[in-house]
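Amino Acid Chain and Its Fold in Token Form
===========================================
Structure side: the spatial fold of the chain, written down as a series of whole-number tokens.
Position: the record begins directly beneath this header, with no further notes in between.
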Amino acid sequence: MTEYPPLPVVDELTGPERQLLDAARHGRSLAADAPVRALVLRELLLGLRGPVDPRGVRVERTRITGELDLDDVEAVAGLALVDCVLAEPMSAQHARLPWLDLSGSELTGGSGCALDAEGLRVDDLRLAGTRMAGSGEYGALCLLDARIAGRTHLSGAEFTGADGPALYLDGLRCGQLRAVGLRATGAGELGAVRLLGAHVDGQADFGDAEITNESGPALNADGLVVEGDLRLIEATVTGELRLLGARLGEADLTGSTLRGGGGTALEADRLHTGELRLAEVTATGSGAATISLTGARVDGQFLFDGAVVVNDGGRALSADGIRVGDTLSGEGVRASGSGEYGALCLIGAHVGGHVDLERAELANDTGAALSADRLRVDGSLRLDGVTATGSGEVGTLRLLGARIGGQATIEDARLTSDTGPALYADGLRVEDNLYLAGTHATGAGDRGAIRAHAAGIGGQLLAEGAVCANGSGPALSADDLRVGNELDLTGLRATCSSEVGAVSLMGARVDGRVTFDGAEVTNDRGPALLGDRCRVGASLALSGLRATGAGGSATVGLLGAHVGGQLSFTGAGIVHREGGTLVSLEDTVVDGPVFFPVEVVASAGLVFVDGFRFGALEEITWREWLELIGSRTAGYRPGPYQRLAAAERAHGHDGHARAVLIAQQRDLRRRAPQAIGGWPARWFHRLWGLFAGYGYRARRAAAALLFAVVAAGGLGFWAGHVGDGSHRAAERVATFEAPVGTPCTTVELIGVGLDRGLPLSPGVRGRCDLDTGVGSGQVFTVAIWVVQAAIWALATLALVGYTGLVRKPAGA
């Protein structure tokens, strides 16, 4: 067995060093007034100077000369150098100590680390108040892959890396990391404070810290694992704060200031944390995003109430695909960004609780203010009082395809876009109610100020007092909208300039009632309200509506609409700037009563009611409705007359129904005579109306027939009293018993008239007849022919009138 000589020791000790030896043996602390060599400290820790008290080697306010080399040392006791000055760097690579305390001390690394403790194994590391300066890629303090069973104290310490990191803590494993008030300044792409792959079993606290790197990341902690909380409360971070793929118990940056400079302020994509608090944070940057949380996962709450996030070159807060188990709250947040989908981006995010952005102020000069396409919120979405300004066709507040499990409130918001929709919500699904009351939306372009095509609202959509304006497109465009209960647009103010409707609800379906009471809708190029093919389960209330339209379409269009309850225009004022159609009810079906006072169309303009079906008329008499059909429609249409007649007949008013149908035939002759035929048919139609009421007053034809019969008999009687010389116009037929000129009896004369005029002869002409050989006889013969023709015609009219074989001519 080979015997090695004992390690050499310093032969001559100075007075302070002998005092140190004595203090170490008795567990006392030494404050020497003269320098102590680092080599003596090494010998004490190695036990070369005899036993050392378990309380360790402790030195205060002393200058340490020489390099303190503890590499691979397995110390018998801990080392405390409190408020000391180490003139040369210290190295403790892979050393093992019970504890190491350099609190308040000052270390200088020169061209390398001030303290290189790579692989250090220690139960407790105290560097509170320490001041270290170094250079190179491993920084002033290097704890690469160090293992610290207890707490790592960095509170109040100051670390400076001249051309690299200040703190190099990659792979560090410790029980707790306390760095409250830390001051760390570094340079370069490696970062000022590095914690890549580090693992903290407890809490990591950087409260009130100041971490600075003007040329790269400030805190570079990709892959960091903190079982407890990561706290950066009221910290100031200049340079990028990186937490890519980090796993944290909770992350609390409340009140911190993050200055990303020319890049990202906080980059935490794929972060996994129990809770994330960014309340009152002030973050500035100019990279792709000031705060990036793409794909992050927050098991509890994500809070950034009152935060101020600014980016002049990209998104302010980018959280695409984030998963939040509980509430996402950003009340009063102020975010300003740039780019197509900044400032606040939640595309594809999933929030298990509520999303609360009440009173937020969002702005983007080149894109969206809030992008929440395909956002899924299991609870409610609250955007009350939001002020959002955006630019571009993408819109200002985007909720395309979003899914809200509770209710969505966007009340009293101010939404503005100079070239696109203010609120863009195609395909939005809200299980409960959607509130838009008092919201002001100003947009531009063909998509509308508020656009919600094919959106689905499970409960009510309430927008009382909302204001929508668009100078180059629709105000509110919600085609194919689905509302499970009520659509309330009471007091809506909508102004626009568009060839489509200011308010467009084409194909919309509302299972409950729809209310436009007191709304004001204006369009200087097209319809005011367009509701073609919409379906309303209950009533449609347009009471007090003020609608102004223009162009070739009706101001209010309800083509093919179906209203399950009543339709009310009470108190409405409808205007068409060019004197066109005011209201189009073509093929509209109203199961209940219709309230349509004549005052609605008192101004110049037309209505279109072809195919309009309704249950009953209220606040307007059938005569007023008949007048409206006859004088305020664009042209003759049979349908409105038929519908009115059917409604009156259904209520037992057959006389009213006949009057309506007669008015229909008169309107046909007045406005569509070509539908009757040529002039003979038109004359027959006129006579038919005169004598038979177009088949609806057959008794008039019967009375005229009776009059014609009496006229025929009267002509016969008259002819027997008119003579021409020895002959009369009507006399007995000459026989052997009755010579020529024998007068007829009164009965025979009347019979001659009836025999000549009636289709069925009474058979008296064998005894008495008209004498066509004299002039008067010829005159009476022609007169009887005329009467006979009239009798034939009147008999035909009476027959068809009573049998109902003919009611109207072709084209009626």
